[in-house]
Design brief:
Helix 2 crosses helix 3, helix 10 packs antiparallel against helix 11 and helix 14 runs antiparallel to helix 15. The chain contains 15 helices and 16 strands. The protein is 44% helix and 16% strand. The longest helix has 19 residues. The protein is α/β, with parallel strands linked by helices and 461 residues long. It has 3 domains: 279 residues, HUPs (Rossmann fold, 3-Layer(aba) Sandwich); 79 residues, no CATH class; 48 residues, no CATH class. The strands form 5 sheets. Strands 5-4-3-10-11 form a 5-stranded parallel β-sheet, with helices on both faces. It has a 4-stranded antiparallel β-sheet with strand order 6-7-8-9. A 3-stranded mixed β-sheet has the order 13-12-14, with helices on one face. Bound molecules: zinc ion (ZN).
């Protein structure tokens, strides 16, 4: 079965065939750097990080680009509130964003492209739109003329008459030809940053940044565009209009993938609704693996409800895999049937991912494997470890090194302590046994006695 992705443009799962076989050019809308990124952003970027890792694992040479919106109304108004220059604010929050992504191990982006560094490309693209009759000038800047682009609406299924419903960053001007016409270039206003250009002094509109950047990095057509579902309209629709109108080449992008939103009490997590947790705050509640697991154990297209048990559930699920890994020994001889079990689980794992990146299915395949292997009565061996390591190369959600006893990890030492504690308890030397328990607890290790054994795990996981 080929890899298939649900394509917002065609509204079905399409087989994945990049323009150049074996190569994937992939773009995801990056942040507007005017404030700290929240957990909703973390969800989106973790899913697309997973996608890039998956495509690479599947043998594609992936170039993954993200833009950094560092020129924007929101940046200008926030900087004015704080009384600092806009570039200082954007530099601060760009650095913060990059730190947050590194902390979440979202490390698959090849290039971050700032709007600031692409003003010439932006001006050239607006000029191409003017030359081809798609743009007109008003007192406050250049606008895209929706009437000039009959394909407008093909991604979102809206007509350009409905474009006036747009609530996101509307460019208000009563003189516009159509209510949905959006700004390509905003004329200079007092106190705002501007560039002297052939379009007049001013600064870029929001949508044009992305297409000028992707044209500079990838050319007028590329393979895959991702983003959160709330960007489909008007932002991604505007990207299609700009680039396809400027180049005449259709389609701009073959595959449009959209991630569902993170919801809190039924509402989208957003700065404007005040119900948000920054990525940094979330990383104080849980480590990066628990957060990655919480996101990736759900399908990227689903919206995710964030509740007070989300992190606890993710932690418990991770622990089941890590506890299983702790029983594994890389050098242990194993039966053919154990190897077959792991190989079949691997096939199921990838079959789920090939089918529109079904990460919940892939996780379920891992848990099914853990159950089957446990039921076989044979302790997990090298093929189990190989499977878990391969899965974790994508998920980055399981602490395998710390778990595996025979791998030079800490687990062997913990097992030795627990064996000593069992002996002490058997000879009723409870005070000494409790001291071992307390010492382990001081190292962040929690233990639980069952009738026949002692289970343990890391508290901070
Ligand atoms: Zn964008």
């Amino acid at each position: 079965m080929p890899i298939r992705f649900y394509n917002t443009l065609t509204r079905r799962k399409d087989p994945f065939e990049p323009i150049t076989p074996g190569e994937v050019r992939m773009f995801v809308c990056g942040p507007t750097v005017y404030d700290a990124s929240h957990l909703g952003h973390a969800k989106t970027y973790t899913h697309f990080d997973f996608l890039a890792r998956f495509l690479r694992r599947r043998g594609y040479r992936v170039t993954y680009a993200q833009n950094i919106t560092d020129v924007d109304d929101k940046i200008i108004s926030r900087a004015a509130q704080l009384g600092i220059p806009p570039h200082e604010l954007s530099a601060r929050f760009e650095a913060r964003y990059r730190e947050d992504m590194a902390a979440l191990r979202n490390d698959s982006v090849d290039t971050y492209e700032r709007a600031h560094d692409h003003v010439d490309d932006i001006v050239a693209q607006v000029q191409a739109l003017i030359d081809r009759g798609h743009a007109y000038r008003l007192a406050d800047g250049w606008y895209f003329d929706l009437d000039s682009f009959p394909d407008y609406g093909k991604l979102s299924g809206r007509t350009h008459v409905e474009a006036e419903d747009s609530v996101a960053r509307v460019d208000e001007n009563a003189q516009k030809r159509n209510p949905g016409d959006f700004a390509l270039w905003k004329a200079k206003k007092p106190g705002e940053p501007f560039w002297e250009t052939p379009l007049g002094p001013g600064r870029p509109g929001w949508h044009i940044e992305d297409t000028a950047i992707t044209e500079a990095v990838f050319g007028p057509q590329y393979d895959l565009h991702g983003g959160a579902v709330d960007l489909i309209f008007p932002h991604h629709e505007a990207e299609i209009a700009q680039q396809e109108a400027a180049s005449g080449k259709v389609p701009l992008v073959r595959y449009w993938l959209h991630a569902g939103l993170l919801r809190v009490d039924g509402a989208k997590m957003a700065k404007s609704s005040g119900n948000f947790l920054t990525i940094r705050q979330a990383l104080e509640l849980a480590d990066f693996r628990t957060l990655r697991y919480a996101f990736l154990s759900q399908h990227y297209r689903s919206s995710m409800e964030f509740t007070d048990v989300t992190l606890a559930n993710a932690r418990a699920a991770r622990r089941r895999v890590e506890n299983f890994a702790r029983l594994a020994e890389p050098g242990r001889p194993e039966s053919t049937s154990a190897r077959d079990l792991a190989e079949r689980a691997r096939e199921r794992f990838f079959a789920h991912l090939d089918d529109d990146l079904d990460t919940p299915g892939a996780v379920a395949a891992l848990f099914e494997y853990v159950r089957e292997q446990n039921r076989s009565g044979e302790p997990p061996g090298p093929s189990a470890l190989a499977l878990l390591r391969e899965a974790d190369g994508l998920f980055d959600a399981f602490d395998l090194d710390r778990s595996v006893a025979g791998d030079g990890g800490a687990a062997g030492d913990v097992e030795a302590e627990l064996a000593l504690r069992r002996e002490l308890r058997a000879s009723r030397r409870f005070a000494e046994a409790d001291r071992i328990r307390d010492a382990l607890r001081a190292r962040g290790i929690v233990i639980e006695d069952t009738s026949d054994t002692t289970r343990w795990w890391y508290q901070d996981a």
